């Protein structure tokens, strides 16, 4: 473990992995905020103490809530693979500058993707940020496979 703490690439990975993980965790409170402020709940137990008439009004979908939920699911589909591939990539001994380019680009893409999703920015803003993030993870996966391929 002490050797990893001296490895600049691993430390860079840990930094950016923590940033995107915190961003992903923030999506829960953002979704809750939209649920409360938009009066949009999806579960009976969330409105259990309300009258039947209030329940009918509150048990509905809202575009802002739906966007926040889809953004969170998209994070799970992209940040989790980045975490595993990025860790393996860091262990292959890449140049620090190249690793930083990968980690920073992915992190910037995920942050912009969230802004584009929550802010309902027009396409292709969200699509491009998603695509670039996937390409970064694919590039790291290629490095891992080309370095350690033992089939």
UniProtKB/TrEMBL annotation:
GO CC term (a single one): endoplasmic reticulum membrane
GO molecular function: glutathione transferase activity
UniProt cross-references to InterPro entries, sorted A to Z: MAPEG-like_dom_sf (IPR023352), Membr-assoc_MAPEG (IPR001129), MGST1-like (IPR040162)
Catalytic reactions on record: RX + glutathione = an S-substituted glutathione + a halide anion + H(+)
Transmembrane segments: 12-34, 76-93, 127-145
Membrane topology, from the record: Multi-pass membrane protein
UniProt keyword Nucleotide-binding, yes or no: no
Coiled coil listed as a keyword: no
Cellular compartments annotated: Endoplasmic reticulum membrane; Mitochondrion outer membrane
Lineage: superkingdom: Eukaryota
Entry's EC annotation: 2.5.1.18
SUPFAM superfamilies noted in UniProt: MAPEG domain-like
Keyword annotations from UniProtKB, A to Z: Acetylation, Endoplasmic reticulum, Membrane, Mitochondrion, Mitochondrion outer membrane, Transferase, Transmembrane, Transmembrane helix
Subunit structure and binding partners: Homotrimer; The trimer binds only one molecule of glutathione.
Annotated family: Belongs to the MAPEG family.
Function recorded in the entry: Conjugation of reduced glutathione to a wide number of exogenous and endogenous hydrophobic electrophiles.
Protein name as annotated: Microsomal glutathione S-transferase 1
Source organism per UniProt: Austrofundulus limnaeus (Annual killifish)
